[in-house]
């Protein structure tokens, strides 16, 4: 059985996602020690520093989606993730956002268990200000597609087929589940697919997150120091989803 | 009567420290619980007091037994001794870490 990490990374006019991906890869190498595949486009591929042995898969992303970030609407190339089942060369895949940083071997432990597809259904705002989860945003048990573990089997394949279907008819499913946001979000597509197919389990711990308003001010390979409205704190030895997209820009 | 001579700047400072410590403690606890999740026989278990007590009790009455994991999937425990020792090891590892953080936080509060 092969286990590896699959990362999607496409630079946009606003953000240099490849810089986040480079840091993400360094953390994976240190804590998970797994093979890594990066799905990217040629423009982003040219920007990567040499990172040793990495598998690259070059695709052309669909570029018609946007997201809200710090008061602005910015381009967001997130639709290729529905192809993760086909893109992954591994029997067990840890599909990860390039802004998710591992600081423990927690995911390795998860990957050694029996599941079809597994992801977080709870989040923990590290600042303690509950800025992540909104209320009345949909009538759907929400999951977070930031980290998704899946195996190459019939059930996982069925979920990914369902995700593609949801993506194609997203406006219908958005109305059906009364989703507040008009843009396409993988979190909702994955949640709808899991809800419709009845397949999948949840990672038993909440995903630690730093909201987009939180600035990362310093890091080393085990700690992230962050600041929000003048309050500075740190988190150590815990995997974190950092929504500040510019902290690696230097 | 309220003490109207209190320095608001000092109160704000104390309040900020208290908030930071409470938050750091909450994060440390969350981290501890996250680290307590362990894989065994392809299932996931929380190495907390509840699981340790359950396994310890069942071990006294059965050579092998079934327990539910965190996702309510059954798991056949064939070597309770091994399972229990792993649970205790992970539990104590996480609690030792938490104890260290707790000590540091107590110093910050002084």
Q: Regarding CATH, which class of chain A? A: Alpha Beta
Overall spatial form of chain B: elongated
pLDDT < 50 runs, ≥5 residues of chain A: none
Low-confidence segments of chain B, ≥5 residues, pLDDT <50?
Answer: none
Adjacency order of strands in the biggest sheet of chain B: 1-2
Pattern of helices and strands of chain B: HEEHEEH
Highlighted features:
heterodimer, A: 250 residues, alpha/beta, Spore Coat Polysaccharide Biosynthesis Protein SpsA, Chain A, 7-stranded mixed β-sheet, 16 strands, globular, B: 110 residues, alpha+beta, two-stranded antiparallel ribbon, 3 helices, 15% strand
Task: Write a brief structural summary.
The complex is a heterodimer of chains A (250) and B (110). By secondary structure, chain A is an alpha/beta fold.
Describe what this molecule looks like in 3D.
The complex is a heterodimer of chains A (250) and B (110). Helix content of chain A is 25%, strand content 30%. Chain A has 250 residues and is of the alpha/beta class. Chain A has one domain: Spore Coat Polysaccharide Biosynthesis Protein SpsA, Chain A, CATH 3.90.550. Chain A has a seven-stranded mixed β-sheet with strand order 3-2-1-6-10-8-11, with helices on both faces. Chain A has a four-stranded mixed β-sheet with strand order 7-16-12-9. In chain A, a hairpin with a 3-residue loop joins strand 13 (215-219) and strand 14 (223-228). The radius of gyration of chain A is 17 Å and the shape is globular. The termini of chain A are far apart. The mean pLDDT of chain A is 91. Chain B has 110 residues and is of the alpha+beta class. Chain B has a domain at 37-109. In chain B, 65% of the residues lie in helices and 15% in strands. Chain B has helices at residues 8-36, 49-61, 80-109; strands spanning 37-40, 43-46, 65-68, 74-77. Chain B has a two-stranded antiparallel ribbon with strand order 1-2. In chain B, strands 3-4 form a two-stranded antiparallel ribbon. In chain B, a hairpin with a 5-residue loop joins strand 3 (65-68) and strand 4. In chain B, helix 2 (49-61) runs antiparallel to helix 3 (80-109). The mean pLDDT of chain B is 90.
């Amino acid at each position: 059985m092969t286990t590896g990490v699959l990362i999607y990374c496409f630079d946009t006019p606003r953000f240099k996602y490849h810089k986040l991906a480079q840091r993400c890869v360094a953390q994976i190498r240190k804590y998970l020690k797994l093979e890594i595949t990066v799905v990217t486009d040629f423009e982003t591929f040219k920007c990567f520093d040499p990172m040793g042995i990495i598998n690259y898969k070059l695709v052309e992303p669909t570029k018609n989606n946007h997201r809200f970030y710090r008061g602005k609407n910015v381009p967001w190339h997130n639709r290729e993730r529905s192809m993760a089942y086909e893109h992954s060369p591994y029997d067990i895949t840890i599909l990860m956002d390039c802004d998710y940083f591992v600081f423990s071997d927690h995911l390795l432990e998860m990957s050694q268990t029996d599941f079809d597809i597994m992801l977080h259904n709870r989040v923990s705002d590290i600042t303690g200000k509950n800025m992540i989860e909104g209320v009345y945003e949909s009538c759907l048990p929400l999951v977070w597609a930031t980290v998704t573990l899946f195996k190459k089997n019939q059930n996982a394949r069925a979920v990914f087929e369902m995700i593609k279907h949801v993506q194609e008819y997203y406006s219908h499913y958005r109305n059906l589940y009364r989703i507040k946001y008009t843009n396409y979000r993988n979190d909702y597509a994955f949640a709808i697919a899991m809800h419709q197919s009845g397949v999948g389990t949840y990672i038993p711990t909440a995903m630690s997150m730093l909201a987009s308003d939180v600035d990362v001010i310093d890091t080393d390979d085990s700690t992230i120091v962050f600041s929000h409205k003048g309050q500075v704190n740190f988190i150590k030895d815990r995997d974190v989803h950092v929504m500040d997209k510019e902290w690696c820009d230097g | 009567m309220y003490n109207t001579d209190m320095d608001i700047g000092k109160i704000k400072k104390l309040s900020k420290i208290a908030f930071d410590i409470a938050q750091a403690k909450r994060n440390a606890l969350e981290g501890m619980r996250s680290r307590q999740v362990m894989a065994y026989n392809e299932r996931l278990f929380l190495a907390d007091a509840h699981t340790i007590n359950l396994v310890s009790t069942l071990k006294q009455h059965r050579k092998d037994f079934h327990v539910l994991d965190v996702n309510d999937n059954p798991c056949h425990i064939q070597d309770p001794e091994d399972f229990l020792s792993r649970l205790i090891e992970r539990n104590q590892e996480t609690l030792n870490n938490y104890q260290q953080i707790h000590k540091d936080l107590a110093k910050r509060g002084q």
